[in-house]
Each structure stands twice: as C-alpha cells, then as structure tokens.
Amino acid sequence: MDTAIAPGGILHGMATITRVRAIRTRADGTWVIVKIETNQPGLYGIGSASDHYRAGVVVAAINEVLAPKLVGRDTADIEDIWQSTLTSGYWRQDSVMGTVIAGADMALWDILGKEAGLPVYRLLGGRCRAAVPVYAHAAGNTIEELIADVQHYIDDGWVYIRCQLGAYGGGGFLEPASPGEGGRPRASALRAPFDTTKRGAFDDEAYLQNVPEMFGALRQHFGYGPKFTHDVHEHLRPHQAVALAQALEPHRLFFVEDILPPEHVAYYRHIKQVCTTPQAMGELFINSAEYLPLIQERLIDYMRIRVSKAGGITPARKIANLCEFYGVHTAWQEGGDNDPVNQLAAYHLDLASWNFGIQEENHFTDGELAVFPGHAVTERGYMYGNEAPGLGVDIDETAAANLFDATRAAQPRFMAEDRRADGSLVRP
Amino acid sequence: MDTAIAPGGILHGMATITRVRAIRTRADGTWVIVKIETNQPGLYGIGSASDHYRAGVVVAAINEVLAPKLVGRDTADIEDIWQSTLTSGYWRQDSVMGTVIAGADMALWDILGKEAGLPVYRLLGGRCRAAVPVYAHAAGNTIEELIADVQHYIDDGWVYIRCQLGAYGGGGFLEPASPGEGGRPRASALRAPFDTTKRGAFDDEAYLQNVPEMFGALRQHFGYGPKFTHDVHEHLRPHQAVALAQALEPHRLFFVEDILPPEHVAYYRHIKQVCTTPQAMGELFINSAEYLPLIQERLIDYMRIRVSKAGGITPARKIANLCEFYGVHTAWQEGGDNDPVNQLAAYHLDLASWNFGIQEENHFTDGELAVFPGHAVTERGYMYGNEAPGLGVDIDETAAANLFDATRAAQPRFMAEDRRADGSLVRP
Amino acid sequence: MDTAIAPGGILHGMATITRVRAIRTRADGTWVIVKIETNQPGLYGIGSASDHYRAGVVVAAINEVLAPKLVGRDTADIEDIWQSTLTSGYWRQDSVMGTVIAGADMALWDILGKEAGLPVYRLLGGRCRAAVPVYAHAAGNTIEELIADVQHYIDDGWVYIRCQLGAYGGGGFLEPASPGEGGRPRASALRAPFDTTKRGAFDDEAYLQNVPEMFGALRQHFGYGPKFTHDVHEHLRPHQAVALAQALEPHRLFFVEDILPPEHVAYYRHIKQVCTTPQAMGELFINSAEYLPLIQERLIDYMRIRVSKAGGITPARKIANLCEFYGVHTAWQEGGDNDPVNQLAAYHLDLASWNFGIQEENHFTDGELAVFPGHAVTERGYMYGNEAPGLGVDIDETAAANLFDATRAAQPRFMAEDRRADGSLVRP
Amino acid sequence: MDTAIAPGGILHGMATITRVRAIRTRADGTWVIVKIETNQPGLYGIGSASDHYRAGVVVAAINEVLAPKLVGRDTADIEDIWQSTLTSGYWRQDSVMGTVIAGADMALWDILGKEAGLPVYRLLGGRCRAAVPVYAHAAGNTIEELIADVQHYIDDGWVYIRCQLGAYGGGGFLEPASPGEGGRPRASALRAPFDTTKRGAFDDEAYLQNVPEMFGALRQHFGYGPKFTHDVHEHLRPHQAVALAQALEPHRLFFVEDILPPEHVAYYRHIKQVCTTPQAMGELFINSAEYLPLIQERLIDYMRIRVSKAGGITPARKIANLCEFYGVHTAWQEGGDNDPVNQLAAYHLDLASWNFGIQEENHFTDGELAVFPGHAVTERGYMYGNEAPGLGVDIDETAAANLFDATRAAQPRFMAEDRRADGSLVRP
C-alpha cells in the first residue's frame, strides 16, 4: 500500500475512493451490499446497507447521494466521511440514509483492516471474549411445538433462546370469526383494510394472558437454566406493556425486547418502577434523541440498535461506549432480515466491547452463505468470525447475481399490518 | 350554498349565523340542544349542551351569552369562534360555559359537514376503524345479580363491560343501622344531612374489601376473556385509591375509572409506582390545568373527558391529538346523562382518532331516540352512525317538546350525597 | 338567638335557611348579591356573586341550584354547605357556580358574625394590621397624562399605584391604518372580526418596548419611593411575557400582574430563572389545579384570586393559609367590576391574614355606595371597614332596585376582543 | 362524486386511489410533486415531496413504496393511510419516507377539499386570521448592503425580516488566507476537504462577535419597529450558541432560529436560564423524540418543522395542536428549497391554527409559478391563497416537464461543507 510521510507533517493513506457501488442480492433482492473500490490495486471494502422493505430506495440513495459524495476522498478519513455524509443532505438521522452511510462506513473499516493487515476487532481495541454468544429463535403455534423447538436448541447446546408463540410471536390473535359475531363489527361496516375476520384480530389482553402462561409452561418444563427472551414487536398499548413486564417478572427472562414502540419509550419509567424484568430495545432507533435519554436514565438494559441503522461501526462503537458509562449492555439486532456482512460488523464490535451482552442469531441458507466467503459460523450458541484482515468477509458478485431474482425483488414488501377487532391498526 | 371566488382575493362561505336557540328536552328537561340557524335556506346545525344538574343555567347562558356573541358571524370561522367565545367573559375553563360553547361548536361542525356533503368524521381525517366499540354497564345488588347481568351482555356479544355492585356501584355502603350502634354517632348528635342511618354510610375500607372480591368472583366465573372495567366515582380517600388500584391488579381490569377525584390526581404517581392497573379519568375535567400534567406524565391510560364538557369537537380533537403523542387513548364519557347528539360527536371523533380506545354506552328510550332522527345504533357492543352529511343526526322539535315535562324539569337535581358513618361528606 | 345545648351532645345553631335570593343591581345589572334569610327574626346575611359578563347566568344558577340546595339547612354548617354545594352538580371548579357558592358562603359568614355579635375578621383570628393598604389605578394616554395621574394619588397620600398607558393599559396597540398599508392584510382579505384597521392592532413587541419605557420615565420623575405595579392583562405570548418581566427588573415594580394567561403559567419557571420582578396572578383562577402548583413551586409572589371566584371566604382563607406556608402573599383582586360586599369579604381576610400583601382599590360612585350601608371607606391608600357584626355591610334593596336599569342590564357584555395585525385574536 | 347511504349501514365515499405518480420539476429537478389519481372522473390531488438534496431517492420511494401501498385504498381514510404507511417499512420517522408520506397526505387533503367543495383550511376549522404574515430574507456582504436590503423590504411594507450577513449568513467566516498563516495548519498538513484556505474558515467566536454587532447597527439605523430574525444554521458549538442567545438579547429579535443543531437541543435549557431571546427551531426535525421534549418543557418559542418533513398536514396539525397546549407558536419552514404546494399546505394550517406565529417567505421565479396555477401570492409581507376547493393549487404537467432540466437534475447536490481553521467540519 502506497503511503508517504511528509517530514514533520501529517501522514495520509494514499488510498482514494474511486467507485462506490450497490450490489443487490438475496433471492428477494432485499440485501444491499455497498462496495467501495479504491485506486490501490485490489483494495476494496464491503458493507451492509440492507433494508428488507425499501431496498430499491437504498440503492437509489447509494447511487445518487453516496457515490458522488465519496468518490475522490481518502479511505482513511472514516470519521470525517461519516460526519460530512451524515449532514450532506441537511436532514439526518434517517432510516434510509443511515443505512446507506453504514454501508460505506463498514466498507471503510474493512479497507482499513486490510491496509493494517488486521481484523477489524483488533483496530477496535482487541477482543474481550473468546467468541460471541448468540440467542436462538424458537417458536411454535402451540406450547407443545414451542417446547419441542426449545428442546432442539438446548440439545444443540444453546443457552439463550427467544420464545415466541403463534402469529407474530405473542399469541395475541383472536380466532377469525364472522363479522358481527363475538365482538366484531357487523359485515356492513367492514371494508378492507378494516376487515379483521380473515386473519384474526390482535388483542392486547389475550397477549397479556398468553405470554406469561407460555413462560410459566416453559419454566415448568425447563426450569430456570435456559436463558429465555421474548420479543413483543411493539404490539401493545403502553400501559399493557407495563403490565406485561410485571407479569413476566416471576419467569425471570434474560430480557424482553421491544415491549414499547419507539414513540412511547417514556413508559420504561413506569416499567422500572414496578418490576425488574430486563428490557431490551433499539432495533427501530435511528436517532440519538430516541436512545440517549433511555441510556442516560438507565431505562433499558440492552441496547439493540441494528449496526447498519445506527450508521455503521463508527457510531455503533460510540453507542457501545456510551452504554458502558451507564451499565447498559449491547445486543445488536440481527434476525431474519440482516445479511452476513452486517452480522460480522456486529461481531467485531461484540468482541471488542467490554459491555457486550448478547447478539441475535441470523438465518441464512447455504446458498446465501455461498455468496459471502469468510462469513461467520455459529455453533452451539456461539458465533465465530475469522482472523482475515478487515471484516473477514467478501462478496462473490457472480453468486450474488445468480441468487438475485429480479421478479421477486420487484414485488413490494410491507410489514404485516395487524389490526384490532374494531379494524384499527396495531402500530408495530 | 352561495359562494363566490373573488379573483386573487380571499372569500368565505357566505353562511352567516342568524339565530342561536336552546331546545330543552328529555322528560326531565336535562337535555339541552343548541340549534344554530343560518341565512342559507335549510342550513342549520345542532350540538349538545346538556347538563343533568344545571340545564336551566345552561339555557340562560345560551340566551344571554352565546346567542349575542355568535349571531352575525360566518359559520366557517369555527376555531376563531371557539377561541373568542371562550374568553368573552374573561373567566374560562368553566363547566357551564364550556358546555354552552360545545353546543355551538358541534353545531358548526354539523353545518360544515352539510356544506361539504360529508359526515363529520371525514372532515376529521377519515375513519381508522370499522365501528366504535362501546362498553356496557352491568350492575347488581349481589354478585349473583351482577353475574347474571354480565352474562346477558356476553350473550349479546359484548366484550367490554363495566361491573358495579350495589349502591353507587362499589358495594362500599354499610347497612343502615340505628344511630349510636356499631360505629355511628348517637342519636343526639344526628341532624340531617349528617344522619346516615337511612341510606347507609359509605366506608372506604368496606369498598376496598368488596370490589376486589367482586372481581375475584367475576374472574372465577367468566375467566379473563371479558374486558371488565369499574367506576369508583371518586368515592375514596386518595391513599385508599392507591390501595384499591393495587388490590385490583390480579383481576386485570381493562381500566378502573375515577379512582381519584380531580383535586387529587397527583396520587396517580403513587398508583403508577405500585401497580399496573390501567387508569381512566377525565369526565370531571374542564380545564387543561387538570389534564395536561396527567397526560404529559403518562399517569392515566384513558382520557375520559366528556366531549361537551371539553368544549366540543374542536378542543376534543386537540386533546385526542395531545394524547396520541403520549400513548394515552380516548374513552369519551357518555353514560346515562348524555344525549344522542353528544354521543354522535364522540362517535365521529372515535372513528377518526387513531388512539381511540373505547366509548361508554348510553341509555336511551325509544321515545327519546324518536326525537333524534339519524341517531346512532348500538349492536352487540359496537356503535354505528350513518353517512349523512354533518353529524348525521337531526332534532324533531315537535317530538322534543312533547317529550319535555315542564313539571319534572322544574325539579332541582343534585348528585347523590353520600356520607361516612360520622356524617361527613364523601366528595364524589 | 335561639340555641340549645343537648346535655353531652353536639350543639347546633337554631338558625335555618328559609330563603335564598339574588338581588341584581348596579345600573348595568352586573352586581349580583346573594341574600340568605333565616327562620330567626331579622337574621340574614349577604354575599357577592357578581359577574360582569354573565350576571343573568349567575342569577339563574342561584335560583335553580343554590336556593333549593340551601333552604332548610342550618346556617351554622358553613364548611359542610360549601363542600356539598360544590359537588352537588358533579362538575365543580366552575366560574359561574364558584361565584354562586361564594355568594352563599359570604352570607353565611355574615350571619355567623351577627350571631356572634362580632365582625367577621375576629372569627377569622383577629386583626394582624390596623388597616388595609390598597393600590391605586393610575392611567393615561400619554406619559404626561400618566405622570399627572400618579402625582394626584401621591399627593393624596397613596403609596401603591398601578400604572397603565393607553388602550388596555400597555400601549401595545398600533395606530389604526388602511388595510394593506404598513404590515396589514389587504382590504380584500378583511372581514369582521378580522379587520383590525378601525381599532388598532395589538402588537407584543410594541408593548414590550413601551412598558419598560413608561416605567423608566416614571422612575426618572418619581424616583424609587412610590410602589408601582402594572397589569399585563394576559396580552402577551408567553416568551414575550418572560422578556417583559426581565426588562422591567431595573424599574423595581412592587409587582407585575397577569403577565401570563392561566393556560401558560408554567412559563413562570422561565421568568423566575431570568429575573426578580415580583409576580402577581390569580384573578382568572377558579381551580386548585391552576394555583396549587404555582404556590407549591413558589412561582408567584402575590396570589390574586378574586374571593368570589375562589368560592367565598371559606376557600379563600384556606388559600391564604396555603400561601403562608410557601411565603406567598395575598392580593385579592378587586378593581372595576367588583361590588362593596366582595370588597369587604376581602377586607376581613386581609385583616386576619398574617401573609396579606396588598389589596386592589375599587371604583364606586356615591350612588352605588348608597346601596350598601356600612360599606368600606378608602382614605389615602388605606381601606377601613367597621366593627359591626358580620361583614358590616347591608344592602338597601329599594336603592338597589332604583339603581338597576333593566334596559342596560339586558345588553350583552363581552370582554374587549383585541386582535393582532393579521386579525388573529389576542387571548386575554 | 358517487356515494350512497346503505340504510342503517356504514358507507364511504367511493373515490378509490387508482394511481400514484411522482412529477419532478424545477430546472434542477429538486421539486417532487405527488399526484394521486382516483376512479372518479377528474378527481385527483397533489402534494409536495420535494427534497433539495435527494429528489431522486424520493422518487424511488414513491414508486417502490408509496404507490403499491396506496393504490386501491379509499381516499377518505386519510388518518389510517398515514398511520399504516408510516410503519409499513418498520422503521419510521424518516426524512425520506416522511416526505413521501407527506406528499400523499397533502394530496388526500386536496382531494377531500375538492369532494367537499371547500378550501382545506375550512376543513381544518376555518380561518383565525385575515391573511398569513411572512418574514422576508434580507442579506448583504456588508452592513451597508444589508441595511439597503432591509430598507427595500420595509419600503414594501414588510414587518418581519430575517437579517443575514456574508457567507451562510452569520459573518463567521475568516478571510481566506495562505495555509500556515494566522492560525491555519501549514501547507503540508492540508488536503482537501480539510483545506479551508479557498473559501474561508468558519470561526465560532467571529460569528459571536459579528452577529450582535450586526443587530446593533440595524437597531441603531431602524429602531425597534421592524421585527428582525436571524438564522444560525446550527453552525455553533452548543456553549457558543448559549452565549450568542444572551448577546442578542438587547437587540430584541423576533426570534433566532437553529441556534443549536438537533443533536444538542438540551442546551435550550441553558439558553432559557440565562436570557429571553426567543427561540425558533424545527426545520431539521423528523421525529417526535426530537420535538416533544422541547415543546413540553417550553424550550422553544416557535416550532419550525417543515410540513412535508413532518409527514404532511395530518401530523403537522397535531403538532400545531400540541404546541397550543404549551404556548408555542408555529413558524413552518419554507425558504428557498420548498415548492408552491408545500407553501400552500402550510398556508392552510396557518389560517386555521390559533397559535400560528409566522411563516417564512419563498422564492419562486415567474416560470416556476407558471407550473402551479392557483399558487399563493405574497404582497407587502402577507401571503394570500385562494378559495378554490382543496389546496387551491394545481400542477401544469406540461409546464412542469418543460421547466425540468434533466442534465441539471442529474447533478449531485450537497449542503455547503463549512470547516473551521483546523479543517474540521462544522456540522450544519
């Protein structure tokens, strides 16, 4: 790598960004990988800018905003690039643009690691742990199915297991019924999307009944050894969320996540007044105005912002540092939507963060993993990266293109739209 | 409707208020309907200014204050009329005047809807739900009677049911006894109205004992499917209210209402510190100084201000919006006193408010409903309005006059005056 | 007076209320005096229930609500009557009903004093001061006129003088101008009441400029000896009120009153952060939710609630007591609207309250005073009552009737409706 | 419009969304207009989704997300469409998506107004003022130039004038100098973009010196009649912002805007502790977590969120209502970037909001205005819309296409990137 030190001066890496590209993959096209190429032969980096619902918008932003902003800059100026890109369109703290910037940021850390010949976690201060514990996703439509799924993970050596029951995880859906029967509006009042009779209506009280029962059954079956979590997906009215947190207390969860929507995080104060159920939140956050008060008041116990939605490794490391001051641990969001690059970005942060808590497992097919040589490996509840320089993962562009199904990618994708019995929307 | 657009200029709907009248109806004369007439043939609106205890005062205020203030103004200036009438007598946030202004405000929205050819809820942003769930009023002097009444509603498809036991609902009344016996002052000390021997004395501790027992019996009989509420009617000392809220927690009420009087809402902080029983309050509020701190601190979960006591649709919509920011849901007060016009004003707000929670059922006789063509219909726990322009309800003035009984209307009406065993007043 | 003590029992006065009447007087009919008659020969009391803008509504409430509620009760049960009347119509803290209750409450204290053969202030604990200082109302359309008016009061021995300049006191009105000239909307946009060109538009910035200048001129002329106050009449936007308080600081006012409207008293926190200008407020308050937080946080220095709007002597004494705990002084509102009975009710409280601060002067004609034998006398800045039992004032009903002009009384009365240059309402 | 009332049933307007299109115009392609077409002949609406820096991203989001989400829905369900679109991609409170949703929301209100035959402001409650005052943008590279520009506006009848000096308005830029001279890093340390020698370096202290001097000169020349504002563009370190607010106090600005960046609004507490300079902020806000605490604590005096960045008329009205409870006034952001549709959306809110304060002027060429028949007209400091149904503005698609310059539109656009003398970025 060609660098030069001016005598007595400031040294700069000589790698200059020459090209910024979006590579769209996964069969449904929801994975967007940013690839930054440089004027140094063979030196490039990749980062994750995936958005399950708006991949095309992300790609447009990479091409229209990110590429012209970055081309010509030194790859070394990671912090300055982050700051100046963030505010380059005036508005910031944006879900779409935050993801785009994250793609670039991860790619620049990847490049830096390659320049240094070191894995990224070493640039972040080195490892605090041998490997990264991850939590599994167990689910079932009945308690029996759920117990079987949990058992499967336990048999495989997992300790941390998220437990979900039925549709969207909480068992809070009433059986579909004829309109006008049993607490449903009559047929003449129903027009899509207000008709809840086909899919079942969400009911806060049913959820509040079912989830503690579910954990009662799980604890009866498995005892208190396994570390269970639960994800509420922001489905409850705030006061119901407080009640659920309290009702879950006897079952000693590792944490409950997203019990409140981001608009109503002030209710964590009520939760902390009445119970000790550990709280995890953050996967919807994109703005420090959302999480700074929560951390500062120590109202959540695990910070779950997605590394790419935070804006990449640069801001995620700062958030982890902030959390350390307040006794909050990290639990970067992963799950079904994320890609192997984002997973590894989180992995490097996990290794180097003293106050790391847990990470979420991902679900990749073999075909998907084949696109990402060097991807992380998860075994018996632990995730392992590799020691290659940078993030340690590459993208096979041919495989990526082969995996991509343009027809599927062109389909619009929206969050499931749950509704209460009267037809009103349940805000996720 | 006569309108014209001046080229490049400002111009307004030409409907001008020509007359403002109070129409008093219901057999006991407690319903007061404001009718606003305009200079446009056939264009008028109606609104509710009913006050069960002070109908004559309301009528005087309509004649002395409202009519001269409004006649001559454009019907279109709804917000300005509201603001300028509110402060026209210097003092504001007044139960009597708030109701009077509400009558005008509803009538102006009714007129606007007619001018637009659209039901009011569409002017408010359109519907968020198929129909409006309402909660029933079940009661009994014994648990058996109460269970039978609840069963009746469940059989009819209702889900939300308020459960009250005995006099004024809470079962907190001691048996009438001879003065001087069992914790009562001796006869020589008793003078009306301090004599509690005829009606029974209210006892906070008895109430605190009875209500959780009642819900224990109801939950044992019905399980956790039905959504129960309870109304305390502000009968408890504040610390007893905190204790009751906690004692009710295992019975998972949909909400408890008016557990505190408006003078002592600061005790909601204590309630929220110790339990998760959902709190509904507001039917006594008339002043933002009463509810703004409660909403802002998220101390109540359901805002129950009566639309007419809030001052009409204009302020009620603002309150609903305020609540949305804080995760509070609306549960506009209805019940026995209100009239079909106020019921529909609430209905239109319910349809259009994303953060609507529930509405209270009303009790009208067929004869009363006949006065109000277009009135809402409640079936199996849901209320339905119609799609006619405006509020969708009219008043048949002949029927209104026939229903009205001047002799009954002339009787004074006061809240029941409950007293403790020592004769002291229980503030409702 | 016929009383009897049952051996070992509780003693009650034998006076029973037989009649409650409203007497309306002043030429414009805005004074409403409640007269309570008893079954004891010659024993009656009077109280003030005046409301400048809604006298007819008050009269209706006395006849419909107050009279049937009180007739038959012992005059001795002052506290119980107050509490049970307050909540007799469910909603309370009402401007109209509060005034009505106050009329009864003052009359009952008047009766009690007569029964005791003592002036009311002695029943309240006796006098803490020899006489009651009051503040004068000086005004002028120019500084010169104002200086002359102030000089007149100083020459007459007054020390406390409220100083107001021009329309509504603050000099914040722009000169009337042609529409479309100098920051006014063009003619085609104007329709009453949005047309401000006839009366002049209110301008916060002009007010903020004029009032400190006015006090600069007054202090230059009179020095710091006279104690000046100023009344803002709630005309400013909250942030302008904060700025005015600060700008007035160098002029060392005795207090500034109503710098904020009741809806925005939270801004007193800002005022107290930036300056020491003493703050008086309360004449618009009717509800403890409005004033309790202000007193508790020590955000106002003088509590100015009108005794009749507070609900009479019973609650006003409690408010004075509350204020004593927090170092707040009383300055009961009087001024142009009030009647000699309310003035004396305040006087008795003033004498007996250790933490009394100042009272506002009234303006009565000789003809008006002739209606109220025993009225207070104000000389050289001090008010003096008399030592007759009760309030010390009576009403000459014949004179009251003669003063009353039915035609004038029938005219509607509204607060002046000031508007800004764009036509929008200035909330008083 | 085809409607029908089912007897006793619910029924809706029959207008269904058939097509959602993005129309890109202005020569530089930065204006994006959403057009919603319906199944009713001739019934459509338009809304603003312009983003000066990311127009192409917005267009991608309209095509990929908005159109498939909306087609097939009733135009009447404005609130439900807003709520369900907001959360349709899980992450929300997004600058890009908020703008896109706003475009749809305005178009639906436009359609509703057309269905009603009424201008939108009447659906919002009618007008509270005759016309909408706007503030002008005066600027100069020297005080003399600035005074001349201000005089020009005053001569034209304007009252509210924003005053800016030099580059980016504040005069805080040091003269360009040779690197290594006068507090600049030496040449060997400079690399673009760290080189500040070409454009001049931003210096907080210079800004802090210059702006109060500027207003001193303006006040000396013009006195306190004109209402001046100033825009800091978030250029200062937080503590310097506090110092500037205090230094500006003697000059009595109408408000200072964006004195703090959105990341550091907590410093408004410091500002309010030390001075009374009115504060305006909001044009960068997209998330209630940013503005709810500010409003609730009354830390800003004017809320300047852009209607389209708030998400349209539906949320902007709620924000205005929220502000009314807290004594905060609205000053929707306009300025150079916005289009005539967004300007009119703000105008309708202005007319109907009692707590409206001021609006910012826009700058359109005749050619740009020709694209928007019915556009607002600004004269002598007041803006006037028209009385046509809906927003009152249309888009001439042919003119829009002719105005659009594809070559210019393809150029990337970024905020000016100011830096301090050491080369570090000044966050806007």
Greatest interface and its participating residue counts: A-D, 59 and 60 residues
Oligomer: homotetramer
Category from helices, strands and their pairing of chain A: alpha/beta
Number of helices of chain A: 15
Question: Under the CATH scheme, which class of the domain at 123-391 in chain A?
Answer: Alpha Beta
Shape of chain A: globular
* Helical coverage of chain A, percent range: 25-40%
Largest sheet of chain A: 10 strands, mixed
Protein described:
Four copies of one chain form a homotetramer. Chain A is α/β, with parallel strands linked by helices and 428 residues long. Chain A has a domain at 123-391: TIM Barrel (Alpha-Beta Barrel). Chain A contains 15 helices and 15 strands. Chain A has helices spanning 55-70, 78-86, 95-116, 120-123, 143-155, 204-222, 238-248, 268-274, 288-296, 307-310, 313-326, 340-352, 366-370, 397-403, 406-409; strands spanning 3-4, 12-13, 17-25, 31-38, 44-48, 132-140, 160-165, 227-231, 255-257, 279-281, 302-303, 329-330, 359-360, 377-379, 382-384. In chain A, strands 6, 7, 8, 9, 10, 11, 12, 13, 14 and 15 form a ten-stranded mixed β-sheet that branches. In chain A, helix 6 packs parallel to helix 7 (238-248) and helix 7 (238-248) packs parallel to helix 8 (268-274). The longest helix of chain A has 22 residues, at 95-116. Chain A is globular, with a radius of gyration of 23 Å. In chain A, 58% of the residues are buried. Mean pLDDT of chain A is 94; it is low at 1-11. Chains in contact: A-B, A-D, B-C, B-D, C-D.
